[in-house]
Design a protein that fits this description.
The chain is α/β, with parallel strands linked by helices. It is built from 21 helices and 24 strands. The chain folds into four domains: about 1-210 and about 515-530, 3-Layer(aba) Sandwich (Rossmann fold), CATH 3.40.50; about 215-225 and about 350-495, P-loop containing nucleotide triphosphate hydrolases (Rossmann fold, 3-Layer(aba) Sandwich); about 230-350, phosphoenolpyruvate carboxylase, domain 3, CATH 1.20.1320.30; about 550-680, Metal Binding Protein, Guanine Nucleotide Exchange Factor, Chain A, CATH 2.170.150. The strands form five sheets. A seven-stranded parallel beta sheet has the order 3-4-2-5-6-1-7, sandwiched between helices. It is globular, with a radius of gyration of 27 Å.
Length: about 675
């Protein structure tokens, strides 16, 4: 293995995989798990007849990264390699792609779609694959797509059906699954092992070499004392009190402290109750209270002006949209206090002390002639944009030579990045054109960022896995891992809990590794059998729920004005992904807005314009039109923007999968016959 450049500890952890055992490699971030996997893939391809290796990742940018940095350089000259993600045309004939190549790197969703798709060009059987490598495999649980793939595997294993691929999982931490005591943590690790049908392997003989290769950063708690006065926060709370009084809250409603995540959870439930009880006053006030609570949370973490602007942006969309006395009151309350809020937000005397502390942490590591590289982790996309704006406007940080960029998840929307923008930002950071990434959790896992000597976690409450992943980004010698947090705050407590959970994970893994092979296999089989039975029960309950009402008995109401606009029987499921309304009369209920721009193209459809409620002054956004097969437009509806009137009650659901009626699949031929009968005479 020396010619391949593996360290001794890597040779140790791949040993059992080379004997064709299913294993999970547990090594810290930066420990070279991917390189070890490349070596296993190489040996597998050399020694297996009709070998077929599939590498699964859970984030799109990792498809390119693993292909370009690891697999292609070592295997590309000998074997046929291909990378496939949601943006690749190859996904549309993935079955053929698997047949024609030796090694395929793809997102897990693409493989799962191929396993359940019956079209020959798209379908893949697990028996077609001889080695399945699963990156960041601790995500193989609950309804994660990795687990959906592995459920297909376990189902076949339990039935004794056909040949199954060898499994190789890679993780820096399987975590404890929320467990706080050793017995429960052991159970969680065993569950991950059962889901992956694999034993967990780590280095035993070469720990000193591993520690030398992956130095731990120095951890600092950069504590901020409580601000001496917060007039903006106080004024926002006073305004929230006015809304509480206007609402005349029911006696059974108890809202927790304003400016907390708990309060946010309370008003989300309150809005849902308002919709259910046909109480528009309650529903609208709850929506506005959530915005004020958001502003308080922003005021705690970012600049006061960021908090004010979040409210200003919200109310800018509400202007000219007053429908009744509730809207007039809520809009009037903001407008009457707007100047006061803006003046308070602009008063530097009361600025958030967290920002000053964050600035000093950054200035300790960055300077005009210092070659530093850092990642600043923040909770939301909105907060990354606010922090970026703050860095650009800070003279001290600009003088220190900070060249920052935002890195957030790919998706559809203004604050999302396209996959190309993500890749470009990562490339510029790697090359040194940028030296600070302001990132959401997207950068915690998998990113290959060398020599990062500062990681700052700012305003974050996350689990031990995310904490370990973030800490593992600081890999340079003498690097620093900083937690900027308020004295006695939740972030500090959570960080200490996570340190305990990290130790607990290691203890749990040690217990699992000490089990005899027979006991381990027996336990894994027991867990797999239990999981298979549980899945069947859950599936049947899901089907039962779906059949609770006839689609024709359900009415969809606009979530804002409560006007009935569609029937459940108007809805069809298109390509297993989009819920569209096929009733031509539906167009009388919506108006068309601006064009939707998505950061990628699709095989059979393209986005059209946004659609919103046509009820005068309502303007509630419902979704967008999609142009299907270049032939016609179909309204694509987001169910979270509607309420459901059933024969017994009014409901709200977040996702279409939770509706209590069956949605028929879209039938292209039938739709054309129904809507264009003249063409088929």
């Amino acid at each position: 293995m020396a010619d391949f450049g593996l360290f001794d500890y890597q040779e140790e952890v791949v040993e059992r995989a080379l004997k064709r055992e299913n294993i999970i490699i547990w090594l810290p971030t930066g420990g070279g798990k991917t390189r070890a996997a490349v070596y296993v893939a190489k040996r597998h391809l050399e020694t297996t007849e009709n070998a077929k290796v599939v590498v699964l990742v859970n984030k799109v940018h990792l498809v390119d990264q693993h292909y370009n940095k690891e697999f292609e350089p070592h295997l590309g000259s000998i074997y046929k390699l291909i990378k496939v993600s949601g943006v690749s045309e190859e996904k549309d004939f993935f079955g053929k792609v698997v047949q024609r190549n030796n090694l395929i790197i793809c997102t897990a969703q693409i493989l799962y779609n191929a396993l359940i798709n019956k079209e020959e060009a798209k379908h893949v059987e697990l028996s077609d694959i001889t080695l399945l490598i699963i990156d960041e495999c601790h995500h193989t649980h609950k309804e994660a797509v990795y687990n959906k793939v592995m459920r297909c595997y376990v189902e076949k294993k339990l039935k004794g059906e056909g040949r199954l691929p060898q499994i190789l999982g890679l993780t820096a931490s399987p975590g404890t699954g929320g467990a706080k005591i050793l017995g429960d943590a052991v159970e969680h690790v065993l569950e991950i092992c059962a889901n992956l049908d694999s034993a967990i392997v780590s280095t035993k003989n070469y720990e000193p070499e591993l520690k030398k290769k992956v130095p731990r950063p120095t951890k600092t708690f950069d504590i901020v004392e409580k601000r001496h006065a917060d007039p903006l926060g106080d004024h926002l709370k006073w305004m929230m009190k006015q809304i509480h009084e206007f609402m005349n809250l029911p006696r059974d409603v108890r809202l927790r402290e304003c400016g907390t995540q708990e309060y946010e959870a309370d008003v989300v439930i309150l809005e849902q109750r308002g919709v259910r009880e046909n109480d528009r006053l309650m529903a609208q006030c709850a929506l506005h209270l959530r915005q004020y609570n958001d502003a308080l949370l922003i005021n705690d973490t970012l600049r006061m002006m960021d908090a004010y602007r979040s409210l200003e942006d919200f109310y800018a969309e509400k202007t000219n949209a007053a429908m009744d006395g509730t809207d007039f009151f809520l809009l009037g309350l903001f407008e009457e206090n707007q100047v006061e809020l803006r003046n308070l937000a602009a008063d530097a005397c009361f600025e958030n002390p967290n920002m000053a502390k964050l600035e000093s942490v950054l200035l300790q590591q960055f300077g005009p002639n210092v070659k530093s590289r850092g990642i600043l982790f923040s909770k939301t996309r909105k907060s990354t944009h606010c922090l970026y704006d703050w860095i650009l406007k800070s003279r001290a940080l600009q003088r220190a030579g900070i060249k920052a960029a935002i890195l957030t998840g790919a998706g559809n929307g203004i604050t999302y990045m396209t996959q190309n923008e993500q890749a470009d930002t990562i490339r510029r950071f790697r090359q040194g054109d940028l030296n600070l990434l302001i990132s959401t959790s997207v950068a915690e896992e998998g990113l290959d960022i060398p020599e990062c000597n500062l990681v700052v976690r700012y305003g974050l409450l996350t689990n031990e896995i995310a904490q370990q992943q973030a800490s593992g980004r600081a890999r340079a010698v003498n690097s620093q891992y900083s937690v900027v947090a308020r004295a006695g705050g939740k972030e500090v407590r959570r960080e200490h809990i996570n340190e305990h959970l990290e130790e607990l994970t290691a203890e749990a893994i040690a217990v699992v590794q000490k089990m005899t092979p027979q006991n381990f296999r027996r336990k894994i089989l027991e867990l797999q059998t239990q999981a298979a039975i549980t899945n069947k029960i859950l599936e049947s309950k899901k089907m039962e729920k779906r059949g609770r009402y006839a689609a024709s008995s359900i009415r969809l109401l606009c979530r804002n004005c409560f006007q009935p606009v569609a029937s459940g029987s108007d809805i069809r499921l298109l390509e297993n992904a989009h819920y569209v309304n096929i009733n031509p009369d539906f167009k009388n209920h919506f108006k068309v807005g601006g064009k939707v721009m998505l950061p990628r193209t699709f095989e059979d459809w393209e986005p059209g314009c946004r659609i919103s409620c046509s009820n005068r002054n309502c303007n509630k956004e419902w979704g967008f039109e999609m142009k299907y097969k270049k032939a016609f437009y179909l309204p694509n509806m987001a169910i979270s923007n509607f309420a459901l009137e059933t024969p017994h009650e009014r409901l709200t659901v977040k996702k279409w999968k939770d509706v209590p009626f069956a949605v028929e699949d879209f039938n292209f031929e039938q739709y054309c016959l129904d809507h264009y009968p003249d063409l088929f005479d």
